[in-house]
Please model this.
Amino acid sequence: MTRARDILSAEPLQVHEIEVRVRYPECDPMGVAHHAVFPIWFEIGRTEMLRASGGNYRDLEAAGVFLAVVRLEVRYHSPARYDDVLRLVTELRSWGPVKVEHAYRLYRGDELLAEAGTTLACLDRDGRAGPLPTEMVPGMSRARAVDA
Amino acid sequence: MTRARDILSAEPLQVHEIEVRVRYPECDPMGVAHHAVFPIWFEIGRTEMLRASGGNYRDLEAAGVFLAVVRLEVRYHSPARYDDVLRLVTELRSWGPVKVEHAYRLYRGDELLAEAGTTLACLDRDGRAGPLPTEMVPGMSRARAVDA
Amino acid sequence: MTRARDILSAEPLQVHEIEVRVRYPECDPMGVAHHAVFPIWFEIGRTEMLRASGGNYRDLEAAGVFLAVVRLEVRYHSPARYDDVLRLVTELRSWGPVKVEHAYRLYRGDELLAEAGTTLACLDRDGRAGPLPTEMVPGMSRARAVDA
Amino acid sequence: MTRARDILSAEPLQVHEIEVRVRYPECDPMGVAHHAVFPIWFEIGRTEMLRASGGNYRDLEAAGVFLAVVRLEVRYHSPARYDDVLRLVTELRSWGPVKVEHAYRLYRGDELLAEAGTTLACLDRDGRAGPLPTEMVPGMSRARAVDA
Model:
């Protein structure tokens, strides 16, 4: 059976890194990426981490499994500018029967621009919380295996 | 039976006006509303025209009727700036069994900022073109009645 | 002189309420407002609170004063659906020489959909932290006066 | 001296192709990419075409040259779905002293999803139309050279 993991553990269960280029309409009159764009990048980060593990979020939804964000926390340290190529490090921090925790660090080169965390809840088509079908989330299954 | 109308007719079938305030993240590093935001405002314009007629787009979708944009044309004359309160005039120009044409003029005060046109196709849940249920679109029904 | 306020104080310095209607493109394939849209609404909430106090964020930027979000925290309790008219309560929780704290509660009717908090830093044109020109932020000035 | 080119010419001056993956929040309750997202992809297409030619739009803006969209036309043939990897073909169709025309075709595999055209006007910092500094737009310079 799956069980909750300690989000404060030093070792993430899984780490994945992507690059994302800042789009023009993502930037605001300050000339920098608007703060509401960062959660979109974080979502891409966890989606690509799932894909790299052999899973696919589109298939999850087709199977009636929805991962809804129930918590979002971001610390913005330095602005991201138009056309910057950013490096996003996504970590799977913990997962349990119905919730998944990720952490994110966004860099331009070696400069840390932002840190963030999210909690996802696993929902069915009718919005009811339910168990995560771990067989569809290979990275998590392997993380569990290692941890068991 | 419904029939196609002449989009070039001088008289629109229905006219509706709304105000929309330019949001901060809708503006780009030029300090003006990004051109991809205008279609979002046009969509609000036709949605509110439908509501003012006694219809409701959410109810249409709940009934399995989807209006998909198949044509979009915009001429941008002058920029819209952050926090501007704009005046959007939406016109129903023509409607037929499966297609609806709207025209739009966007103003700041008396200054014309943009002109646009859209064609919507009526689709069912599976994306197949189908007849518009005119009983759910009161403004169009009345327009037809006047025109008949 | 301005001084930092206790963010945990039960009494907010200022409270303002607006309505916001959920736009179609703000909703995702789950049929509900995407989580990255909520911060855009919160920004509108604090902008309108400033306007209601006699200030104007556009004027602040024109004067070289930029308020950048450095912290964002959101708890999502229940989804917001397309075309819902939401009620957003924005509170000014604390303000000091260079930082401002707001809290937000988003409702549909009496149902609490989300709670959030932000910290803004006051920056000059070159992105350097600087003092908030309180004479341009009437609500804050009055809040201080009451508090002094 | 630069001169206007015939937009109807069969041969584009320059062609560039990119891939773009459909993001989750770009999709609406119909489960497909919202029509207002397509112009954002087209902008990325022409930006990347410029980059592939050795130019850079960020540098253009830093030099006080802004390319504003004054015309947008899109025909939507078939929906793009979440997580689809699309293929965008961008063509430079014509360019003259102050205006640039592009055409776009968006595919999923071999299926044509949309066709579009834009006209850009070259503006200075104050929004006045001005000549395009062709030395900063290598692809256009080469296109002209070939064409002369």
Notes: DSSP finds three helices and five strands in chain D. Chain D has one domain: 14-147.
